[in-house]
Each structure stands twice: as C-alpha cells, then as structure tokens.
Amino acid sequence: MFYIAFKMLVGDRGKYLGIILGISFASLIMTQQPAIFSGLMTRTYSFITDLGLPDIWVMDPTVRYVDDGKTMPEKNLYRVASIDGVAWAKPLYKGNIQARLNTGTYQNCNLIGIDDTTLIGAPAQLIQGNIEGLWQADAVIVNEEGANDKLANPPVTSGGPKIPLRVGQEIELNDHRAVVVGIAKSTRTFQSLPVIFTTYSRAKQFVPPQRNLLSYVLVKAKPGQDIDQLVHRIEKQSGLKALPREKFKDSTIDYYFKYTGIPINFGVSVLLGFLVGAIIAGQTFYSFTYENLRYYGVLKAMGVADRTLLLMIVFQSLIVCFIGYGLGIAGTAIFAYFTKNSLLAFRFPWQLMVFSVFGVTVISALAALISIRKVLKLEPAIVFKS
User: Fold this and answer.
1) Whole-prediction pTM
2) Which of 14-18, 277-281, 366-370 has the highest mean pLDDT?
3) 3-state secondary structure the chain
4) Which of 60, 141, 163, 344 is deepest in the core (most CB within 10 A)?
5) Coiled-coil annotation: which residues (predicted)?
C-alpha cells in the first residue's frame, strides 16, 4: 500500500513539486529569518562575549544593557576589590568618541579603556601588532571591521577600494593624537561602529573631561567561590548592581525585546512565511487528494480499511514533509555560506532546527488532516457512478 501511495504522490509531478515547494518555502522562512534575528540579538551583547575573563560585571544600579554604561566614581573600584571572595577587580571605560579621518570627516567610534597594568579587557585575538603595544605612548588598537571600512584611508583613485588602516598609522581622537599599534579580531557590534581599545588612563585623556569615567568594574571570583553569593555580597556592600556574565547578556537582550521593534518585525515575517507555506501546501495537498479520490474509492470498494487509507495519506505527507524541510534547510545553509563575511548578522543555533521541524510537521499534519477527512467520508459507489 505504501508503494501505491508513493506512486500516487509522484504521479502528478506538477502538484507533487507544488507541495514540496510550499513546505520548502515555509521551512526556509522559519529558519532564515529567525537565524538573522538570532544573529542580531547576539551582536547586542557581543562585547560581553568577547570579554571572557570576568565572572561578574558591576555597574551603576540604573544600567539596563551593555551600551547603557553610566559612569561611577572610581572609589567604587576599590570598594568592590576589597569584598571577600573577589580575586581581582579591574576598571573598564566604555563610551563613544569621534575620530577625525584623513578626509577631514568624523566617524563615531566605541572607545574601550582597559586596565593599564594587566590589560584585562583587551581583545583576545590580534591579526596585526600585539597587546603589549598598548603600553606605548598614545597607543590604540582598532578592530578589523573598523580598520577595513569606516576608519580606512581614502582610495588612491576615485571610485577605488579604501585602503585599510595599518599598524603605525595615526588617527585623531577628540583632538588627541593616537597611534595604531594593533588590529584586533572582534565580534561585530549591534551598531557596527568601529571599536578602539586603549588603556583606562589614556581613555580619560581622549574623552572630554567628566567627573566620573568608570563604566564597569570587572570582577573575577576566587576559586571555589559561589558566584550568586558573591553577587549578593557585592550588591549589599557596595550598593551597586552586579550581574554574572550570562545574566548581563540576558538583561541586554531583554532590553532590546522590550524597547525595540526588532522582535515584532521578524516575528511577523516568520508568521507570514508559516501561513503562506501552510496555505500553499495545504491547498495543493487537498487538491492532490481530491483528484485521486477515485483511486481511494476503488481501494475502499476492494475492501481496504479506512485505517490503511489514513496511513497512506500520512505516509504521503511525511514524504513531502521531509523533502520540503531538507530543501528549506539547504536553502538556509546556502544563504549562510554566501553571507558569512558580510555585514548581515546570522546565527543558526540547534533550537532553530527544532523549531522549524515542529513548524513543518504542523503544516504537513494540517494538509494531511484536511485530505483525510475527504477520503474517510468518501462513498465508493459514487466513484463507480461517475
């Protein structure tokens, strides 16, 4: 019976391909759009991800996400460092600054000031220069995307490619000379601004005078120290907000969920893709079953039970489900391959695979249910009359 079901399915190639394409489209939309959304959300906390050493981030109590850095008095650094269970506490400045380019134009950048002595907070991977170069006068490290694009030198010829910023070149930060001593590999940020690393004390020279400049205190717990207990102790004794690394990421994502329209926009795209795929697949599968009613009628007249006919239809829906899902996933993989080095954010966690399998299965089940109802109500005599 399954062989007959398969022959019935592929017998009309036009409808067979129509069902496959409908499910493939739905599968593609249900994976590609959420993957872009996931990539965007990942970029919102990419700075936290890149700083792997600290266990806890300590900040002003009103900070809601990582780019919402509100400065604090530097005495908070020493207050946190003295709390029992803290192995070390280091300062971090995170803010914006304007860089003056060779063309005379200005470019907004993220300025990161890290601990002068230990350089904790520096980028983990450099493709040019070395981290110790930050101990030189006026030294800065620029991230790769910024060096190749927004901070790059103008092209030699009109319309030609930009010339990437190199180690040894100078840029101007808020009327201060800065010398590039390294090009860093870092995760793109949500705003895709160039990221400039320097020491904490030099960052204070670059930015306009402010009363407070300490954005975060990076904390490492002593070995064996319970992180949650240490967080509670820091908040109680310092009056500041302390978040473990993963919770700070969650807090950042929560902010973008609540205060931006990004989740709604992508949610609408995914929902439309699901509905369009379901409608195309359901309608085509129903039409396919309807046009094959005479064969089901003949099978019924021959004594084939309703249960067997039901299994035949489920078998047909599973075939188109698996093929359509595979083609959709393949389309998403091809899309990811050709956009991997572009500005487009893309992240494909395993949860998306589960989500898309569930979605495609629902579409196939709906299409099968609509068709099954028609077959179960079929009277074989009507087929022979026609």
Assistant:
1) 0.77
2) 14-18
3) CHHHHHHHHHHCHHHHHHHHHHHHHHHHHHHHHHHHHHHHHHHHCHHHHHCCCCCEEEECCCCCCCCCCCCECCHHHHHHHCCCCEEEEEEEEEEEEEEECCCCCEEEEEEEEECCCCCCCCCCEEEEECHHHHHCCCEEEEEHHHHHCCCCECCCCCCCCCECCCCCCEEEECCEEEEEEEEEECCCCCCCCCEEEEEHHHHHHHCCCCCCCECEEEEEECCCCCHHHHHHHHHHHHCCEEEEHHHHHHHHHHHHHHHCCHHHHHHHHHHHHHHHHHHHHHHHHHHHHHHCHHHHHHHHHCCCCHHHHHHHHHHHHHHHHHHHHHHHHHHHHHHHHHCCCCCCCCCCCHHHHHHHHHHHHHHHHHHHHHHHHHHHCCCHHHHHHC
4) 141
5) none
